[in-house]
Amino acid sequence: MSTGVSVDDEVASTFQKFKLQQEPYKLRYFIYQIKDKKTIVIEKQGDRNKTYDDFVGELPENDCRYGLIDIEFETDDGRPTSKLVFISWNPDTASVRPKMLYSGSKEALKSALVGVGIHINATDHSELDYESAILPVVKKFA
Amino acid sequence: MYCGDETGAYVGDVGSHTARFGYGGEDCPKVVLPSAVYRHYGGTVDYNNDDEGSRVKKRKAAKYSAPVSLLNAPPDDCFTENEVGFIPIYNSMNSNAKSSPDVDTEALAALWECSYQSLAVRDRKKHTVGPRHDPNDTIEGPIDHPLLASIDPHRGEKHHASILEMFFESLSAPAAYLAPSATLSAFSFGRPTALVVDVGHSSARVTPVMDGYTLKFGSVQSQRGGDWLARVQEKVLACNDLWGDAPCPCPDGVMPRYMLRNKDDNLLKLKILKESSFHDMSVHQVMYEMMTGSHVLPLEEEESSLPAPFSDNDSDDSNAVEDEEVDEDEPMYVLPDGTRLDLGLTKTGKDLRRLPELFFSESLPTFLQTDTNTNSDENITTQPLHQLVQHSLSQILDADIRKELISNIILTGSSSLFTGMDKRLSSELSRILPSMYKNKVISSKNSVENRYSAWIGGSILSSLGSFQQMWLSRREYDECGSFLGLQKFHS
After folding, report:
1. Could you read off the pLDDT tens digit of each residue along chain A, which spans 142 residues?
2. First to last CA, chain A
3. Collapsing DSSP states into helix, strand and coil, what is residue B292?
């Protein structure tokens, strides 16, 4: 069941370039927002020199967002690698309406972001913690 | 509120105890009715005008109305010689009445119709500003609100198809949508993937929801819902064996409120009523009030060292316990008919204070075990809540999904409002599930959100601008019929 929210064209086109790290989309992350309860658009983007913590800092406290971030890490055998992670930020402190909207529209966005294998659902800051929550999941898929 | 919302949706969530209705976009349902209708026999035949273009069907001779409350006996014209026209929509699994698995769609249509009356759904002039020139001039026409209903995936395709048919044929809706109530509850908590534990009236249901889709093979039900607990309490109050030397408080059964108000009614009427489901529902009302009274102790987080309530022990012991452990605050409860229950004195009285404990007790006391239900459906069990969750999870073979479900357990439903239930469920699950899974039980502190979470989910869904393309319109239904129409909801 979905909510019928559509994905903006800009999202799909910038995603392709982001995947290939082409200029001017040599970025670290995107933050997506649902505008006017109808379309998913890009709210913010972060430069390559920004970190995961910058990404977390840009997420609002009491409202929901979607995020796509390129995480660089070392696998267990020591290879440096990077993976794209889709994060659904749905804090418990948000009101019911945005929570409903964002959870129902997640599928639409996921299908537009082709090839992103790692999906994380975060409902508070402890679930966004890099060391304890994100990294183990990412490493499993590496 | 957005202006021009004459075509806002109408959302209905019909459960086994209450039915919730209201306009989409609102925060809580404006109309909450008991899930039953009165059927009036005889009287005048009621036909609707066959206007050009109006598709309202002629009503049959039996007229229906909705009981607003169960405090008074049904009106006189509901009685025939040997039965009363009180039709519950969903027969409780526990009831002794012959329960047919098929829901009476005529009664269901009547319930929806009755809810329209309070909100003036059919009145097309309700949004006109200014005085009406003729107060009797309200246009009763076909509704122009699309209808959204919540459904229970356990009931099967045939039932859902008949609801869809009812919407388009009897209620002449312009568009409709059916959504599983577990998905709506999960979305209203902001989680597209969750294990929804809905402790309702007729049963406790555990339904895994993955990205908005309910998984059928993981969906399990248990009899232990609010209705079951109310019956247990009723049995305890009426059972002589449990009270030791003293007589039980209600030797003739618990007296519901309508009996007090209608004492002067003729005896035959009361006799008919006593054997009907109206009586059952009224008694439950009294029992629900008792279960939510202040004498009920909050559930402890860890299973206490005390034995389960009402478990057998030597009758000698119960007398010995009496002297030492009389509760300090002398709790007592007064039933509507004046019967005073002193709950601090006997063991059974003290156990009544720990009633919600029965949701988690693994073995049932003997006086309950004899009352096994005759329903042989494998999916319906009498497992305690934590085991039910475990059973549901065991049907899910993918470890990653299981992990995600365990960390997103939503506890909802009116019978989950007992204090401490979420913490207790969490600690019981930590005990029986493998320790690598960290469980998280989420429940709303706000009782409105718990009781009406599926309705609220439906309300918000129907009010989304982007959702308007998802409705199954009248035209589509006319082309493909109800079964194919159902497929649209799964895409």
Report:
1. 677 788 888 888 888 888 887 777 778 889 999 888 888 889 988 888 888 888 889 999 899 999 998 888 888 888 888 888 999 998 888 888 888 888 888 888 888 888 888 888 888 888 888 888 888 888 877 7
2. 31
3. coil
Binning pLDDT at 50, 70 and 90, where does residue B8 land? Answer: confident
Is the separation of the CB atoms in B410 and B443 below 8 Å?
Answer: yes
Q: Per-residue pLDDT averaged across B412-437, rounded?
A: 89
Please identify, in words, the CATH class of the domain defined by B190-223+378-443.
alpha beta
Task: Please tell me the distance from the alpha carbon of residue B380 to that of residue B434, in angstroms, as a whole number.
Answer: 25
Question: What backbone phi and psi angles, to 5 degrees, belong to A139?
Answer: -65, -30
The DSSP code for A115 is T
Take residue B269 and report the two structure tokens written for it.
């009427």
User: Which range (A101-105, B114-118, B242-246, B317-321) has the least confidence?
Assistant: B317-321
Within 8 A of B179 by CB-CB distance, chain A residues are 1
For residue A139, CA distances in Å to A27, A118, A119, A131 come to 21, 10, 13, 11
Residue B217 is given by DSSP the state G
**Which burial class, exposed, middle or buried, applies to B16 when counting CB atoms under 10 A from its CB (0-12, 13-18, 19+)?**
buried
Residues A4, B470: C-beta atoms closer than 8 Å? yes
pLDDT digits 0-9 by tens, B47-73: 344 443 333 333 345 688 888 778 888
Edge-to-edge, what's the strand order for the sheet holding B175-180?
B31-34, B18-23, B10-14, B147-151, B175-180, B472-473
Question: Is B1-35+93-187+452-491 in CATH node 1.10.260.40?
Answer: no
- Consecutive H or E run containing A80: strand A80-89
Q: According to the 3-state scheme, what is the secondary structure of B181-215?
A: HHHHHHHHCCCCCEEEEEECCCCEEEEEEECCEEC
Judged by CB atoms closer than 8 Å, whether chains meet at A106 and B188 is answered as no
Is A92 within 8 Å of chain B by CB? yes
**Chain B residue with minimal CA distance to A38?**
B466
Alpha helices, DSSP H, located in B292-438: 315-324, 347-353, 366-369, 385-394, 399-406, 421-432
Q: Which domains does chain A have, with CATH numbers?
A: 6-139 (3.40.20.10)
pLDDT for B433-461, tens place per residue?
A: 888 888 999 888 888 888 899 999 899 88
Which residues of chain B neighbour A105 with C-beta distances below 8 Å?
Answer: 466
pLDDT at residue B306 is higher than 80? no
ipTM for the predicted complex comes to 0.78
Of B191, B404, B465, the CB nearest to A90: B191
The number of residues in chain B equals 491
In 3D space, the residue among B344, B225, B338, B238 whose CA is nearest the CA of residue B288 turns out to be B225
* CB-facing half-sphere around the CA of B470: CA atoms within 13 A: 24
Give the per-residue pLDDT at A18: 85
